[in-house]
């Protein structure tokens, strides 16, 4: 009898396990983009809309008399890399939120009515974290330049804007596909979301990481001074500051504010390689990002076996280091949020067709990238950048205070470079983190910092109405 | 309109499934024969309603006359069997007959949805199997010396198992060499050997008077397990091992055998793992990895389980409705993964109820074993209960990621000649044991009542206690 009872007990466990699975696990499991069953929902459900957090529809469906569903995007290219496309596979939210949009929670009467009328039920709508005005500003500020903008709310991880250029019109995905088949289109990167997938040399924005490592290794970092001559040979490498300007005597804070390459190369000679690697890894280099969409991993190559000559370029963000705008935003976001990184996310909630909430996605903490003390120091130093350093000419006199770091990353030997800015506004209680990269800034003359400023301006216009 | 009918059928089907399951337990609880019969009859009605609704849905969705014809043939045979079997074997358990038919019919439904030809094949083979196995109780009643063939059972069983190693005859499938093929007709010897194995262990245990006897028995049993491990059929090895330990415990009622057995099994697994980590056990390790995180290995070892979980989750509690899901994208959905196919299209509630029905079948098997007074038959019925429940556990647990998947079939529901025939044999042998012990009880009763009548005549005041009617079930 003992045996019979224990067998029954095991089966009760199995029974309970299946209910547990259905209750708590199945939603995540079936939302897996490899689940082919999602598409079979499309037979009975009309794909739901994608809506911005301020209620503007950016992707919608309509069904014609013959039952063919047509997907349209009222703002064409503006949200292309947020919504992604549908048809020829899927990308962006069309892929990530596919499952939600193909499920319908319309009320039972409507469902029976639709059943009898042989109409499709309206799928649930996805409300994104994206703010329409911020996205529009970012989109327009980038103009015709190649590059990417990503804006994140540091206290929650909500992605408020995400732009990548060049882009495409998801309304005409057929034409886009045709273009990609041509010789010219074959090398095109219009489908690449540079904000999460573009790997760029971080340039001087990486000095934030180097600075953090220096502070960690030297408790007397406040005593640091350096006399910049504009050009020098450090660790057998010829290093010069921007335009070979001599910065003269400077503290650690001045070194960051003026983005002094020589001072940082000097710092590089003192760093412990293994610890440096450790800090970079902890800051999510060479590792997975807590992001659900498609992205690329950032790269940082220094380790205990690295050669001395590799350091001077690496500490100032040249060398072999590569980072995505998303990742750079996350570093700034953790500084803004007292060292704690919130997981970035794009879907705020799921609603049924009547606007009733079906599912709310809550902000989740990823963990501490640095201590709150360290975050505070970096915050202060980054304010210096915007108060009297390299970004001062953009932000002096603005109604809000900004902490940030500029960068100019050379990507070849002909002086071609990309312009970077990472930073956040309202340094006491940061509201918005922005990470911008503008490609070929030496040619198009657009500075990443000015793009960031326009976004901050818009942010305060929306929230406080200037 | 078709949609509406099918939707309503789906919900009705779930309701009747729950009612059916409820009756299974209710019947076991009651001792009143009249009530029991009433409930058994309502059970049959429920099955036929479910079966009708499902085939109606299938016909409406697939729009094929063949399905209606097939439905008619099934109903005719099912009714015929239920009536005829019970009128021949009056002492048989109607609950077992009901459940057996129920499982077969559910299997036909989901197989018709997956692959009509497969369903017909299954129906033909199962029908032949049902007719042949109907003679089993008769043979058991006539031929009472079965228990004297202990060693012979052992040798026959081992010989059967070895056949898969004969070149040209044995076939390797899904990493295990446990099939034989003769002219395109494939069989899984293990399915039949497990029956012989139970007979073997039972007959040895009946005569085991000393530790030495038990030891001999253990060594031969170990040979079975060893061969199964060599075939890389670990699911089967687990079934055999647990069955053996449980039967040994029943015969000796010494907890030491359970504790010792489990720890010995643990040591054995560890030893095998260390010895054959890279050869024999390589595909086991793959399966365990895939079990831990099927989605990480979705393109390789985790594919089957991932698809199965997609099916379960997407179908939901109520199911997508027959033919409305993607049950045919689940690998081997007609046999090993049939439970996922059922859950996806007929609903997880249906699957959960099916689990309870299986538990109730197990309990009624155990009931038969416990009521039987002849040790040999008792051991056999008990051994079969364990085999049945363990196999169901390995199957359902495997496809729901409760335990690593081992590749065994769901008895009577899954497609497969070997599996269906062997499970039918198990059911009918247990039925035979039930008949034997019921007959015995009835004749005892007669003896007793005659004796009591005499006593009463002689004027001695004896209570009418002995008149309690014998339970049949």
Descriptive notes:
- The complex is a heterodimer of chains A (466) and B (473).
- Chain A has 466 residues and is an alpha+beta fold.
- Among the domains of chain A are: 29 residues; 255 residues, DD-peptidase/beta-lactamase superfamily (Beta-lactamase, 3-Layer(aba) Sandwich).
- Chain A has 20 helices and 19 strands.
- In chain A, the strands form six sheets. In chain A, strands 4-3-2-6-14-15 form a six-stranded mixed sheet, with no helix packed on it. A five-stranded antiparallel sheet of chain A has the order 8-7-19-18-17, with helices on both faces.
- The model of chain A has no long low-confidence stretch (mean pLDDT 91).
- Chain B has two domains: 296 residues, no CATH class; 127 residues.
- The relative contact order of chain B is 0.12.
- Chain B is built from 17 helices and three strands.
- Chain B is an all-alpha fold and 473 residues long.
- Helix content of chain B is 72%, strand content 3%.
- Chains A and B meet through helix 1 and helix 2 of A and helix 1, helix 10, helix 13, helix 15 and helix 16 of B.
Greatest interface by residues involved: A-B, 31 and 45 residues
Strand arrangement, major sheet of chain A = 4-3-2-6-14-15
Q: What value does the average pLDDT of chain A take? A: 91
Number of domains of chain B: 2
């Amino acid at each position: 009898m003992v045996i019979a009872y224990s067998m029954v007990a095991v089966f009760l466990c199995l029974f309970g396990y299946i209910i547990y699975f259905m209750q708590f696990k199945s939603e995540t499991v079936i939302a897996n983009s490899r689940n082919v069953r999602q598409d079979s929902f499309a037979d009975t459900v009309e794909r739901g809309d994608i809506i911005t957090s301020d209620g503007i529809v950016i992707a919608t469906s309509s069904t014609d008399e013959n039952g063919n569903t047509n997907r349209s995007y009222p703002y064409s290219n503006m949200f292309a890399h947020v919504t992604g496309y549908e048809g020829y596979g899927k990308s962006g939210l069309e892929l990530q939120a596919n499952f939600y949009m193909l499920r319908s929670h319309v009320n039972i009467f409507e469902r029976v009515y639709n059943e009898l009328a042989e109409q499709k039920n309206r799928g649930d709508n996805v409300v994104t974290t994206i703010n329409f005005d911020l996205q529009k500003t970012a989109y327009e500020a980038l103009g015709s330049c190649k590059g990417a903008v990503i804006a994140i709310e540091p206290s929650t991880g909500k992605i408020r804007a995400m732009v990548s250029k060049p882009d495409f019109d998801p309304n005409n995905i057929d034409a886009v596909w045709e273009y990609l088949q041509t010789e010219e289109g074959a090398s095109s990167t219009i489908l690449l979301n540079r904000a999460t997938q573009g790997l760029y040399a971080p340039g001087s924005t990486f000095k934030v990481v180097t600075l953090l490592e220096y502070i960690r290794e030297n408790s007397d970092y406040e005593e640091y001074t350096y006399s910049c001559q504009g050009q020098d040979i450090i660790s057998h490498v010829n290093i010069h500051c921007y335009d070979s300007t001599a910065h003269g005597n400077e503290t650690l804070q001045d070194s960051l504010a003026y983005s002094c390459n020589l001072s940082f190369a000097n710092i590089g000679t003192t760093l412990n390689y293994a610890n440096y690697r450790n800090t970079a890894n902890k800051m999510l280099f060479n590792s997975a990002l807590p992001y659900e969409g498609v992205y690329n991993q950032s790269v940082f190559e220094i380790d205990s076996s690295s050669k001395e000559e590799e350091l001077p370029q690496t500490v100032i963000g040249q060398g072999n280091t590569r980072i995505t705008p998303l990742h750079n935003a996350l570093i700034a976001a953790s500084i803004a949020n007292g060292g704690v990184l919130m997981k970035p996310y794009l879907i705020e909630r799921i609603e049924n067709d009547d606007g009733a909430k079906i599912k709310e996605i809550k902000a989740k903490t990823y963990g501490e990238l640095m201590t709150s003390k360290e975050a505070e120091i970096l915050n202060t130093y980054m304010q210096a950048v915007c108060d009297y350093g390299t970004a001062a000419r953009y932000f002096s006199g603005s109604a809000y205070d900004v902490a940030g770091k500029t960068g100019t990353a050379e990507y070849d030997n002909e002086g071609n470079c990309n312009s970077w800015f990472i930073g956040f506004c309202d340094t006491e209680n940061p509201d918005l983190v922005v990470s911008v990269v503008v490609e070929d800034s030496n040619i198009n003359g657009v500075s990443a910092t000015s793009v960031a400023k326009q976004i901050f301006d818009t942010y305060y216009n929306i929230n406080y109405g200037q | 309109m078709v949609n509406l009918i099918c939707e309503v059928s789906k919900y009705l089907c779930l309701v009747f499934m729950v009612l059916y399951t409820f009756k299974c337990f209710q019947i076991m609880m009651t001792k009143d024969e009249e009530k029991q019969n009433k409930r058994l009859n309502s059970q049959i009605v429920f099955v036929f309603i479910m079966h009708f609704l499902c085939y109606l849905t299938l016909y409406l969705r697939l729009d094929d006359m063949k399905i209606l014809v097939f439905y008619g043939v099934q109903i005719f045979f099912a009714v015929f069997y239920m009536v005829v079997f019970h009128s021949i074997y009056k002492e048989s358990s109607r609950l077992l007959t009901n459940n057996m038919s129920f499982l077969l019919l559910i299997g036909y439904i989901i197989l018709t949805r997956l692959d009509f030809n497969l369903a017909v094949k299954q129906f033909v083979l199962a029908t032949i199997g049902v007719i042949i196995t109907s003679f089993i109780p008769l043979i058991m009643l006539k031929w009472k010396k079965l228990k004297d063939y202990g060693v012979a059972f052992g040798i026959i069983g081992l010989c059967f198992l070895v056949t898969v190693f004969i070149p040209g005859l044995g076939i390797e499938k899904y990493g295990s060499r446990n099939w034989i093929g003769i002219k395109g007709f494939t069989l899984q010897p293990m399915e039949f050997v497990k029956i012989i194995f139970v007979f073997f262990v039972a007959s040895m245990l009946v005569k085991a008077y000393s530790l030495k006897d038990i030891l001999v028995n253990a060594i031969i049993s170990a040979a079975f397990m060893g061969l199964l491990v060599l075939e890389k059929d670990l699911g089967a090895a687990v079934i055999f091992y647990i069955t053996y330990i449980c039967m040994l415990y029943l015969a000796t009622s010494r907890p030491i055998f359970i504790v010792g057995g489990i720890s010995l099994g643990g040591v054995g697994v560890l030893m095998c793992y260390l010895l054959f980590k890279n050869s024999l056990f390589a595909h086991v390790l793959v399966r365990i990895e895939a079990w831990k995180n099927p989605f990480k290995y979705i393109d390789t070892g985790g594919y089957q389980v991932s698809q199965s979980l997609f099916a379960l989750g997407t179908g939901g509690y109520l199911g997508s409705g027959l033919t409305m899901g993607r049950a045919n994208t689940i690998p081997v959905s007609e046999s090993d993964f049939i439970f996922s196919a059922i859950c996806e299209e007929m609903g997880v509630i249906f699957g959960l109820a099916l689990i309870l029905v299986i538990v109730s079948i197990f309990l009624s098997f155990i009931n038969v074993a416990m009521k039987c007074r002849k040790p040999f038959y008792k051991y056999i019925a008990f051994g079969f209960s364990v085999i049945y429940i363990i196999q169901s556990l390995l199957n359902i647990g495997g496809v729901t990621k409760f335990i690593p998947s081992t590749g065994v079939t769901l008895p009577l529901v899954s497609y497969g000649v070997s599996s269906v025939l062997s499970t039918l044999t198990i059911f009918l042998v247990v039925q035979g044991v039930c008949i034997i012990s019921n007959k015995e009880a009835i004749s005892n009763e007669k003896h007793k009542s005659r004796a009591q009548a005499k006593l009463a005549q002689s004027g001695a005041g004896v209570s009418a206690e002995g008149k309690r009617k014998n339970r049949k079930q």
